Amino acid sequence: MVGVGVAEGGGGGAPDGYYGEYYPPEPYYVPPEMCPHPQQHPQHAHMCTVHAEYGGMPVVTSATMMPPLLPPVLDEGMRHYLVAHHQPHPHHAPHHQPHHQPHHQPPPHHQPPHPYVPTNGAGGPQHYYGGAYPAHFHHVPPHHMQHSPPPPVYQKDERTQRQYSKLKQKLERKHTNRNNGIEVNSGASTPSLSPRKELNGRSGGSGGASSGAWSEGEGSSASASVQGDDDNDTQALLDMLSATRTPQVSDMTPTSALVQWNSPRPEGVTFPNVELTYDLLLGDRGRYKAIYSGPSLSCRVRDLRPGCEYSVCLQIRAGELTGAASEAATFRAPPAPPERPAAARVQQRTRTSLLLRWSAPADNGARISHYVLEMDAGDGFAELTRPRMRQHTINNLQPQTCYRFRIAAVNECGRGDWSDDTVVCTAGPPPPAPAAPSLRAADSTSLSLEWVRRADEEFTLQMDDAIQGHGFLPVYSGPDCAYVCDRLRRATEYRFRLRCETADGKGPWSPEVSYNTLPERPCPPGRPAPRGKIHSRAFRLRWDPPTDDGGAEIETYTLEIDGGDGYNCAYRGPEREAHCDRLQPGTQYRARVRCANVAGESEWSAGETVVTEATCPGACAPPEVAGAPRATLVSVRWRAPDCLGGAPLAEYRLELADTDGLVRLVHVGLETECVIRELLPGREYRVWVTACNKVGAGPPSSALRFTTAPAPPEAPEPPIVSIDSPRSARVEWTAPPNNGAPIVDFRLEMSATNIDDAFAEIYRGMDTACSITKLTPFTPYFFRVCATNSAGRGTWSLVRDALTPRAPPAAPAGLRHEATVDSLRLYWRVPASHGADILRYRVEVDDAAFDTEGPTPEQLVEGLLPDTVYRVRVAALNELGLGDWSEETRAATRPCPPAPPTLRCAQVAHNYLRLEWEPSVEGAQYCVEMRAPDAREFRPVYRGSAHSCKVKKLREATTYTFRIRASDERGGRGAWGEPAPARTAAAPPPAPHAPALALLAPRVALASWDALDDAEYVLQCARGKDAVFKEVYTGKDTQFQLEDLEYNTEYQVRVGAVRGGLAGAWSAPTRLSVPAAPAPARPRRPRAARALAPRHAALLMAAGFLLVAVLVAVLVQRLVDPRP
């Protein structure tokens, strides 16, 4: 079924905007006679504006937009139908509770198929878009899911009129009770339009579901009559919903129709809290589906099939009550031109004709009378014929030419749309014979062929196997220009031929060509086996031919043997036997063989192991020296002989001979390297090696000649020491053996502690004696000597010690001094005493000498001149005499320090003093100290090189005492100068607060200000903003009266304090504005009270109501919202 309902009018109120979210408003086409105002659309005379009484444009779906229905599921006596949608729906239908079926409801099999959800109040109607939304599952009554046509409904006009009258009376009576102040009690457990369980003690309806109703009562005594009234009201409302007239169908087009109906509401009767919902059911071929549900009184059904017959009926719902379906109105959609056919197909093609065939399109309600076939040969489409059949043969065409065809169907309503173009070409001559296929590659089981391809050609390749005897058979058909024939036999000849095929036919065969497959590699030959006796240096091998030669004759055999250094070729030729010579005795050889034909070489055969006979080993190569020979040992190595004799070596024998001819065995073993020890340095030796196995010893190798390296000399005897004086000695020694190399020099070392690291070299040369000077008296010394040759330094001799005699002290060192103006204090380090205690020191200052009292290393020299340089040196004295003088040092006395300058006070203030003085010496530093009246000591207030300083944070009217001294780098600190007193001045009074001004009379003002201690006051006044202040008062009073002020003038007043002749700062000015002169008085007349205008009264009342509403809303919000 195809159908879409569009609401065209609304009798139940304004249309809901719910539908506009998916289908915006648009114009609808109506006949001119139905359009009352055609002048609104002069460009489109057939377009008419939809009037307001038709309401909005809600859209519902049916047919292909209908959701698929799933099988019903029974749950506790209630049937649930699952409606599956396929795309997300922004408005989900609310679930409703199942209810009992109302009175006069048609049987379940007569109900419309589409589920719906009733709406209450002003909510929008529920719609379903089946083919475009995801699955939503709703609980709906089972009687809404059937697809049979509605049964005929018998109208009860008289009974319905009586029920209408009765219902109207009850509503009027209820309204009267409300107006009289009687409250209607609907019951707490039975709300308005709520489902009921029973009616008059039994089920309320044939379906078992309760119907909705409203109740009324008059105080507490009306509860007994509520039950009966509710039953009558429900039955009356149900009868009204069932008294539905057949809907009217008009304004039909091939794909749409306008359906209209009337509202069942009686005139003058209102239904409280009841909203009527109209369900329009569309029937096609005996099956009904809901296409619209809403409050409108008209609906345009769209997406109809032209020429098909449809039925529509109406069903009305009020809340949870559903009336019976109306009688069906049957109509037929007008026919339309046929649909667009599919593109024509080519059934047969020749050089001059084409056979086209096509399928019949939908006729849209009118039988197709004929078809129109047009052809385009390059100059545009032209009508070719009008066949009645669905095929046609076009003759007299040009060979190998492309044509374009299109088809359209025609019925009594006109011609339909053209089909898609069909492009087809006529046939041409068959292709010529191609060139013979060429061989691209070949192996033992396949042949790869290729050929040249022209445009739009397919090929057929045939092969002839002479051995099979079946002749040429096809092996390939297709458009490719290469093919690989596989699964062939090796070394076999095959014949091939090729033919081209196009749409125009098959061409002749190409010339035949023959190609052979390649042979395969042969199998490995048999394992080689020894033939005859195996000698120490030769043997003979033989092998069997391969079991499979690969389809070609064996051309060569290759024999390889491995003696331990890899396989090497021993024979290559057609024979199956080979002689192997020039072998090593007692060696294990592995032999293998392979064969080859034109296809390649076979795999290697299984290996065979052959061992030659063993003999004595051969001579080794001459030994080699591993590194340079040393003085007493040498490292010798050698290599194994080239021929081991076929048996493993048992040992090597290494022999050594010196220049005297003495031979000795120095090594026996399997090692190939040996260290020969206990040799003499600088001697010549010969050494050779002999290899031995289990058969015997082989010949000795050639001799290796080498000379041992020279060694350092031996250690000399301990040296002999002779003391000449406290500061000199003589050392002598004898030469040791040189160990094969002449002695180059002797080395003599001396130390004062007998520690190896403390020895220092004092002589190197060829002499065996040495004189040593500059020794320290009364000090032990240790001596040792060694010899050196080209091999290196020899071992040190034993240590010889000696002690020098006592002597006078050494010279003092580290002479330093501290200078004053007339003295020098000298310091020095204590020198070595040289075996006798120091008794005293002798100090020389220029030509004067001074001796210290005892061994104290310091001396004070006084009575010197200031700023004078003196030469100073010191010497120590013990019982053996005066020691050496120290180095002469120059020491200078300091100059006289600078005299203190004279202080004077340059600037005086109440909290600081500025002091100045004349510079005494260039580059001098000054220190100024101050003593307060309540302090006992001076404290520094300035240090620096300036000639003045400012002392801050002082008390007013206070006397302070200052003193100064000068110092420089050479003379040091000088003496303090004479104390100088200085006194700070008294402080001026502070600035008073701004004066207060008070206007006493129109031209008289009083100025007052805060009082200060022991101060007089100066009051100044200025006229205007930029005027000059003038003094108007001087005295000790804290207020002053300003008189004779001008009207309409601004004044500024400020005050300052004076104490002890010092004036303080002015206060901030205070402004005073004198008002203008008063106007002459006029007699006042009594003014009558005016009444408040009605507009102002209304505004005041609205403001009061708004304020009360805001206060109530705030209070309610605080009561409702939970407190945190």
From TrEMBL:
Q: Superkingdom of the source?
A: Eukaryota
Return the PROSITE patterns for the record: FN3 (PS50853)
Is-annotated flag, keyword Transmembrane? yes
Domain called Fibronectin type-III: residue spans: 243-336, 337-429, 433-520, 524-615, 619-711, 715-807, 808-896, 897-987, 991-1077
Q: Which organism is it from?
A: Brenthis ino
Q: Which regions are flagged for Low complexity bias?
A: 211-225
Q: Which residues cross the membrane?
A: 1097-1116
Question: What is the protein name stated in its UniProt record?
Answer: Fibronectin type-III domain-containing protein
Name the residue ranges with Polar residues bias: 178-193
Region named Disordered: 87-232, 970-990
Question: Which keywords describe this protein according to UniProt?
Answer: Membrane, Transmembrane, Transmembrane helix
Q: Does the keyword Transmembrane helix apply?
A: yes
Q: Which segments show compositional bias classed as Basic residues?
A: 87-107, 136-146, 165-177
